[in-house]
Design goal:
Number of strands: 18
Number of helices: 2
Number of domains: 1
Distance between the termini: 47 Å
Strand order of the largest sheet: 3-4-5-6
């Protein structure tokens, strides 16, 4: 899709009467990007993803769409406040993502030549680490995922933000785990007998909760 689509929610519509506005997308084109809503403005950020039709990805970057309030808007490139650390990140696709009020989270995924220009065409990297983008300070952090299963990686699956505690909790569901150097489609499915919770306030702390024990409580 080369455009951003906009539909008004001020009036009722049906499939036959809906008016869809098409806004040219200046940002690079990726599938399955993370989309984090900016709490301070009518805007959202996009990060990660995989190019379509085996296209080469654009250089690493963070992009923001700002709505104009009347059904339109525009795209702009965003420079994180810690640009040196940001420049060392590797972009991945097929990751799990969510957000709190002002922090976007992005866990794992697979890096290939369709996600990042630094990856060769025959390499598939399952990335460890939880990226966090603070939309208030404009900075990225990359925290350890040691303790997330036996490999610290996650391909696919989903993560939900739970508003509990100082900075909330992240609850991970589904997906698969694979060694950091993996094959396309490789990996072992995450067992639902255990659920993993991440506490952003602790940064590197993970806790597994046994589903059977939880059901008994």
């Amino acid at each position: 899709m080369n455009s951003t689509l906009s539909i008004s929610l001020k009036d009722s519509w049906t499939n036959s009467s809906v008016s869809v506005r098409s806004i040219p997308k200046a940002a690079p084109l990726f599938n399955s990007e993370a989309a984090w809503r900016d709490p301070s403005a009518n805007a959202f950020y996009v990060w990660g993803g995989t190019t379509a039709y085996f296209a080469q990805p654009a250089a690493i970057g963070l992009w923001k769409f700002t709505a104009d309030g009347v059904g339109g808007g525009s795209w702009s490139s965003v420079t994180p406040s810690n640009i040196v650390s940001f420049s060392s990140l590797v972009r991945s696709g097929t990751a799990a993502w969510t957000q709190s009020k002002n922090v976007g989270y992005y866990m794992g995924g697979v890096a290939t030549y369709q996600t990042d220009t630094s990856i060769s065409s025959d390499t598939y990297l399952a990335l460890p680490g939880i990226l966090a983008y603070d939309m208030t300070t404009g900075s990225f952090t990359n925290s350890s995922t040691v303790g997330f299963g036996s490999l610290g990686t996650l391909i696919g699956g989903s993560v939900e933000f739970v508003p509990f505690g100082k900075e909330g909790l992240l609850l991970f569901l589904g997906g698969s785990q694979a060694p950091q150097v993996t094959n396309y489609g490789g990996g072992r499915e995450v067992d639902f007998a255990n659920l993993t919770i991440y506490d952003p306030a602790g940064r590197t702390e993970h806790k597994k909760i046994c589903a059977e024990e939880t059901a008994d409580d």
